[in-house]
Fold each of these.
Amino acid sequence: MITFPILSLMTFLPLLGALLIMTVRGDEESVAANARSVALVTSLLTFAVSVYMYMGFDQSSADFQMVEKYDWLPGFNIAYKMGVDGISVFFILLSTLLTPICILASWESIQKRIREYMIAFLLLETMMLGMFAALDLVLFYVFFEGVLLPMFVIIGVWGGQRRVYAAFKFFLYTLLGSVLMLIAILALYHQFGTTDIPSLMQMDVPQALQRWVFLAFLASFAVKVPMWPVHTWLPDAHVEAPTAGSVILAGVLLKMGGYGFLRLSLPILPQASEYFIPLIFSLSVIAVIYTSLVALAQEDMKKLIAYSSVAHMGFVTLGIFTLTTQGLQGAMFQMLSHGVVAAALFLCVGVVYDRLHTREIRRYGGLVKNMPRYATVFMIFMLASVGLPGTSGFVGEFLVLLGAYQVHTLATFLAATGVVLGAAYMLYLYKRVVFGELIKADVKAMPDINLREMAIFAPLLALVFWMGIYPSSFLNPMAPALEKVIARYNDANGINPQGEMQP
Amino acid sequence: MRPFEAPALMISFPELILAVLAMILLMLAVVGQKENYRLISRLGVFALIVIATLLFKSNPETGTSFGGMFITDSFAIYMKMLVAIGSAVSLMMAGKSLEREKIDRVEYPVLILFSTLGMMLMISANDLISLYVSLELQSFPLYVLAAIQRDSTRSTEAGLKYFVLGSLSSGLLLYGASLIYGFTGATGFEPIAQALHGQTAVSLGIVTGMVLMICGMAFKVSAVPFHMWAPDVYEGAPAPVTAFFAIAPKVAAIALLARVLMGPFGDMIGLWQQVIIAISIASMVLGGVAAVTQTNIKRLLAYSSIGHMGYALIGLAAANRVGIQGIVIYMTLYMLMSIGVFCLVLMMKRRDKVVEGISDLSGLAKQQPMLALAMSIMMFSMAGIPPLAGFFGKLFIFQAAVSAGLYTLAVTGVLTSVVAAYYYLRIIKVMYFEDAAAGIDKSEDTGLNLILIAASLAVVLFIVLPAPILNGAAEAALSLVQ
């Protein structure tokens, strides 16, 4: 058992690192070097702490663990409360894993204002971890919105040509969604006098209120996921963000929406969740098919992967709202897998972008000849994204479709076409970038990936295979918490586990 | 004849002291051989800090004196402390800038002291007559201050505009007060409340009187549609004066509005709630939309303050204890953020010339990273983005709206806050995303730097230690709404 407040330690460790970087003085070069190493060490330490936390995590329990609670807003019954369960613990690990990778990936590609960049990333990590660990709605909201600040700066300062437009679009879009969630949180608070998430999960929220609150939460989470038709900020943000920004955006920030559905919408608003299943299913299926088709037509590598993210997240929302064991596990797994694979794909784009400074697919071709190692790495992640059995992508998509099939055959059929389309656009991308004749002089001159880049890819490669070959080590610990969500949903809607309505 | 009551006089001790000190300073200023602005200004700051301390130590029990014209309670004490601290800080901020602009006259601190005295009396007003007198005592020094840069057309124009429109609003207020007196036969707040209590059909005279009074007070808080003076006055007045306008008088005006509506007109909530909701929505929308196209930072801040007053009025529209608590918290944090922002405005100089364009800030993040960081903190906070203090101001205000069932108001509020976020972000964009223009001078004013650092830290660290302000606000609200 871990007795000290490990979650707070883990959450605020990056903040400490950021403060440390702020105090660094000296000439520009030494400041940059110090900032880089402090950021890397801090994020690795955070990762170590999170792994230690996971080792103390009781995998058989569905309850919140390592709970910390302190008074925060006196007179309002709003507390600083943290805790993890089988759902949040994996997102925390994903965040702590991706942050050092992002910092490594920015080692050379970021050349200006390095100190501020590192501070922004560490701040971002604190916000992400806090959000996944928060067990109070107001605290959750604080971290949920707090993510916007560093991300806005990361896109706006270190982004590409249209970075200002992308940063504003990202910020205002997500803000618009989340402020509605704030009102919903206050409505719940007004009804029950508490914002404690575990207590709210026990409450019977009145039907009418449930639906409004659900829609408000949907406004916020749908933008984050993002679901069709509010996904349009994502391609812009991804294209303009620096590589590491895209990695963290695809790897963690998109998961905040799915996490929100699992943590808040389903357990607190079970009846409304049932009521809105058709809406979510339709949006998910449209997202899968439409954005896959859009991805086929992209000329920009990052944009293509961005659209593929929307399609993959469509599977996630589909899986969550099947409310079956397989569906939920699949959705969780898909989120984790996408977190690793999409992050890796953006890193792959980053590698060639660092060398040629363009994301246009036409400018490449024939990379397999002069960058064989790169071609191999890229291929593995590309196939994982397609969902090749043996890689992480397969497990998630398969489970989601399995879960969905029990609930709605047509939706499953339509979503399954997304798998085919996914294979089409990814293989097409791979063909255009890696195969073909190596004729362009500047492409010929590109060196293969170096040791630092290998070090970045290695843990992600290992994860892709680990998740693909032995998914149980991930599925088992999350199962109790997911079962609890399903049990709560069935209970509230009067469904017995066989799926028949009770009289 | 009423016997002289010494103990009852004690509850207005801070005001009495301030009045005496202000007059002593005036004497010093007049008698002195040559104008000694620095000395008078420092003494003024000292006097205000003494007053704030006195208020902090004073008895929070409710009590009246001057024949019921003056009331003191936790609400009054809290708001007066805010006003005193705000005035003290803005006087400290003004120092060097006034000297540089050659308007470092001894009148400046004296006028600020008198205006502050007016504000404190306003917060404690418990009678239509003391309300009007204190309001004018507060306003007249402000008119003079706006025009203190006598050689500048903009400044004198601002002063004149402020005076004419201010007089108009005073007239409306006075007319409303006279109607109330005519129809209830009383000027004291308690007798008016008793006269209105339990009335089923309120006479048209009272309604007209009340609405006119609301108009007069809405002018003082610069709420739409009585906001027209704010952008011009903010822009025209010298920056230190604008800072003072933004920091202190609004706190007092909102406090007065809350006291009048919750006190004597408490039973007529059904009549004034709609008015306040309309004013609040109009202020939020106009404050948000009109600021988007501004290029002058003072003008932008004027519209931003109009918007902020709209949010504060949500708490009043809720008309319950949570709402008043929300207002108190909101005004505290708003004052804090205004102090920070105006520190930066006062620092905006290029080769010793004052600059006011937003584009003059471009590339600030490269030249003066700490200053840009402080400004971004203030902007994000004003936009209400957590984890900064401004978010909590909005949180409690919206909570009040939800608790009163005013969902439309709450949703309008959050939506306009997204629009407002755009223009706050625009300033951050100019500082961070754009390459350096000519830049602005490094601030040599240690006092200003220190105030800015303190305000930034307070805005960032509010989340860690919110208890003192929340508890203070809870107590204040409890004394106004039982």
Note: Strands of chain A lie at 65-73, 78-84.
Amino acid sequence: MSRAETTVRREDGARGPGALWTLGLLRSELTLTFRRWRTLALLAVLAAVPVLIGIAVKIETSDGSPVGGGGAEGGGPAFLTQITNNGLFLVFAALAATLPVFLPMAVGVVAGDAVAGEANAGTLRYLLVAPAGRTRLLFAKYASTLVFCLVATLVVAVSALATGALLFPLGEVTTISGTRIGFGEGLLRAVLIAAVVAASLIGLAAIGLFVSTLTHSGVAAMATTVGLLITVQILDTIPQLSVIHPYLFPHYWLSFADLLRQPVYWDEVLDNLTLQAVYAAVFGSAAWARFTTKDITA
Amino acid sequence: MDRDAVSAAVIETRGLTKRFRGGQLAVDSLDLSVPAGSVFGFLGPNGSGKTTTIRMLMGLIAPTSGTAALLGHPVPRAARSVLPQVGALIEGPALYGFLSGRDNLIRYDSADPAADPRTRRARVAAALDRVGLTAAGGKKAKAYSLGMKQRLGLASALLQPRRLLVLDEPTNGLDPQGMREIRSLVRELAADGTTVFLSSHLLDEIEQVCTHAAVMSRGRLVVQGPVTELAAGARGRLVVTTPDTAQAARVLKEHGVADLTVARERVTGELPPGDVEPADLNAALVRADVRVRSFGVERASLEDAFVALTGEGFDVAG
């Protein structure tokens, strides 16, 4: 037996699929994700949100009146009042509007479908006998989901920037702290915020992937993931449960507004990133443990 | 020693057992041995454990106990190095409907660590050509007919030169012309030295292409061996065509022919055990003034052997 084992190991080493092959699988995953009509439709909806916000603000302020009337500075990252002065604020407003619902829903759909969708279509068994390798396949799935998180966030940001630039003037940015920074630095902050927003979805992506390994139905996995998201967000608003709030993955999501302070207030942003990393580690491991030992009967 | 073992059996299982969580025993201590270079027919009624066995061989399901080896290496442990040499069609094809046939193959090929990306396009084109799908390669797979999907599934099993092909019901959904093509493809592959492991519910199909066969029933292996030996296990039947059926039946009975049945101008019966020369029976009939129109022994089909072994109709779920 030991002789057979060493033979196998040597062959493994000689064949050495290596990084190049993993990249090939990842590329295949990305192509697959972004060629689905569903993905493109999700991205189209995300791109439409900033346009709608922009148009709504434009119409409402066309008679010269201020937006809403309230919207005290620092009282929540709505940023709506600032949009008419500076189109760049549409980026922040759009990200603040999509982060609680649209973005995580899109991620829940893509992550939930990742493994369960393949199982449902039966393609999973052919990938595994190819043999893709369960760990590598899961890794490629997670990596492509993370790429989707980034792309989805960028779609919102870029669409918002384009709409903002078209409908409103661009210029110096007034930070939440009241100081002013140049447009160039403002744009840099926008990029940083988009990156943090995308990173905020890392935890949910891992949860979705884990749920996806539990079922053979892509729809069930998507619904469960999105249902979990809504439940956790409700829990996050119940004051009696404040003890557990810091451990809920959406708790620090809107902390990205702190990046618009001068100087930048990092504490909650870092708390958010740490929390996302913990969720990714826990649910990523759970997904791995489940997927690598599971009987594939679909 | 090791080398010999490897070349002798392409698939080897020892006490392979799978009990599902519900407690159902799907495969019960299976000792299967598929010789290299054979076309191996894997038979059994629905629910007899064929597919579970195939899934265990391909590393999709973990056995409850027992071991399985493919090409001399244990699975699922060595699956990574063995499976690139194995092409498989398991429980029908599965495709990405929104991708073209060609892109489906590219997708599966990029999942194979042993596949060279530089030759990918050429190999995909060759595989499409081999199953006659070159013209339809650019069409979306959801527009394919069942037969075309089946062909595309076969093409994905043929993306690389394989040492072993595991084909689960490969002619499912194909028209008679397509079935014939698949059979000749299987023969062609076997002639190139590829071992073909073929599960089918079409017994005559197995009989036409297979050199070896195994029969499963209720999760257990009933028998395995060369097809000629299996069919020989069930003895042939004597068939006499004559207008004088009553007389013929009497004479045959006197000579020890059992289980006689008379239908119209046809008398059939089981040849008596021992060395009975059918020509002597014919002579006896003629001596008794039976006008014999035709006389012969019908070779036992695999189906007869199958029914004799499992004691049940073929499509009975076990």
Note: Chain A touches chain B at residues 3-5, 7-8, 11-12, 15, 17, 20-21, 24-25, 27-28, 31-32, 35-37, 121-123, 125-133, 137, 293, 295-297 (CB under 8 Å).
